[in-house]
Amino acid sequence: MSNLTSPTQQFGDLTITAVSDGYLHASFDFLANIDPADATRLQEIAGITDHTSIHINCYLVRGGGHTVLIDAGGGGFKQWGGRLKTNLLLAGIQPCEIDAILLTHAHPDHVGGLMDASGAAVFPNAELVAHHREVAFWQDDGKLSRAPERARGNFLVARQVFDGYRDRLRTFEGGEVLPGVTAMPLPGHTAGHTGYRFDSGDKSLLVWGDIVHFPQIQVPRPDVSIAFDQDAHLAAETRTKLLDCAAAEQLLIAGMHLGEPGFAGIKRAGDTYALAYEK
């Protein structure tokens, strides 16, 4: 039985549920191409009172004989998130029932929930599926040695996860990664940042990972990047192209930082774009 408070979409025989992992906070000083006062104003206009709060979503996909998780939240790393396991239980899902975990990328607020405090895998029966470039990046000792101090912990978290699931790790280049689920490379935020697309009849859904962190700022202002982007220019380019595609194709969007409603459409608003949350 689903937790009634969790937003859910039906795609053919697949049920996709947004499961909250909680929140993290990031200063507007992390944003580029926008003045913090302007960022604050956009949050105010959107009715967001906790301006620097970033919600963390994970997505539960059920059907076709599979119980799949897309990303696993922060697991409490740096006090980020940590509510996924509790909210999965509220949705009637035990960790042992998850048979695959699709990663959009391996930042700590997406993989922290894969390992517990003792260093054991939280999802004992799950295959871990990620783009091969993502795995290669975090396992590259040269990149670790050149990383700024604040980013080194990210390497250690990712490596712990890939090591903890090493017997069940599957990498891909692209294409269909599970029945009815197609990987879509979305480079810029990380080397192997990937979205997952679902198509059923005339309806399409894209789980777009971290295309935005502050949706009410970065959807109308896709040029605004965040310090977490490995390649800010490429991330902004990918975001702009994807917003155009989502508006033109009327794609339903799911995103790890899209907010608690979990699902939204992208509408053209003059020369720019606007977010329209699903009711």
TrEMBL record:
Residues annotated as domain Metallo-beta-lactamase: 55-257
Source organism superkingdom: Bacteria
Keywords assigned: Hydrolase, Metal-binding, Zinc
SUPFAM superfamilies assigned: Metallo-hydrolase/oxidoreductase (SSF56281)
Protein family according to the UniProt entry: Belongs to the metallo-beta-lactamase superfamily.
Name the UniProt record assigns to this protein: Glyoxylase-like metal-dependent hydrolase (Beta-lactamase superfamily II)
Taxon lineage: Bacteria, Pseudomonadati, Pseudomonadota, Alphaproteobacteria, Hyphomicrobiales
